[in-house]
Amino acid sequence: MVKKFLQNASLMVAANLLIKSIWILGVDRGVQNLLGPEEYGMYAVLFNAGILLIFIADLGVNNYHNRFVAQNPQLAGKSASAILTSKLILAVVYLAICLCYGIYSGYSNRILQLFVIIGCNWFLTTLIIFFRGVVGGLQQFKTDTLFSISDRFILIFLVGYALWFSPTLLTLEYFVYSQTIALSLVVFSLIIYVSRQTKNFHFHFDYAYIIKTLKNSMPFAILFLFQAVMIRADTIMLERLLVNGHEQAGIYMASQRLLETLTILAYLVSVILFPMFSKMIAQKENVKPLVKTSALLMFIPSVLVFILFIFFHKEIMNSLYTHPEIISSSKIAMVVMLSFVWLAQGYVWGTLLTANGNLKILNILSLLFMLLNLSMNFYFIPRYHAMGAAISFCITQGLFVLSEAIVCVRIFWIANQK
To answer: Among 169, 171, 205, 317, which is 20 to 30 Å from 347 by CA?
Structure first.
């Protein structure tokens, strides 16, 4: 199982590092340099607000369904088609709440329209994750790798063309609508593929099955909400707590972009680990060798990256960005990169707990550290602005991941020795 994990992980990581690094560091970074920290900061606020509300359109179904399919691949088609119908209904509710939130926040017509479209993009993203969960649950990791990079591959051409050959065409609206086009194409492709690979996949409304699934997935929904607030609320709090909130959000996102690029590796490893852990636990196999291998695989590169940023954070930010406000705040990137060490480990230990069904423990931990993160943000952001958000994020993630690791050791090491 360890050998299979390493083979699949190598392929997926290589493909995603290539395509998504070009997107994040080449195209997305170029968009921020062109639009400026304030305009892009506004986009970042809307983007993260959409994440905080997206649990309404998912209700934990994706994580629950991924685990279910990994353990019951013969039921993938029936389960996916029934849940898809419910997700479409939830999408309408989600978009309505996005609209109400935008109106309550006093957004202008332009910002409100952008927010609703960003909400649509987030729903399309959840559909991609949902169908990729089916593909991964069927152990078709090479195909999953292809779909994992498809939307960014399309966006590199759509947005990259405007960025490099027609900059006057590239507005925030163009940027957002391009994402809608790319995500829609991938969703339709996944629907066609999954319908051909599974039996009994067709649109139908199975009320009893949907209610049963929603009840079982509710702990996943709560977990997603707590973790989304813990990770994403800082950008929104920068907007709300500071006069120059959009600008500070843009400065903060410049460093978070680097973190997002680096966590591609950790996230993709977790995508492969989740069905493997789920299957091994269901078959009562020993997961410890796989845990040790994956944890070490995440630890070494994350520490090396952090050391690099300790000595060269200013040079790295100067080479990537053109706005002096971002370059002068390069120490934020150093603090954020320490968070990468914690996040990389969190994708291993958190995935193991989720696969084992320890949702109650994860929810309690997530609630506690979400409250800690919010409290720290209320204290640090008014005093240190974007740096305050980075400090709060780093401390919270470090303590949260340490708690996850302690729980895993107690469950899979100490308990098994008794």
So the answer is: 317
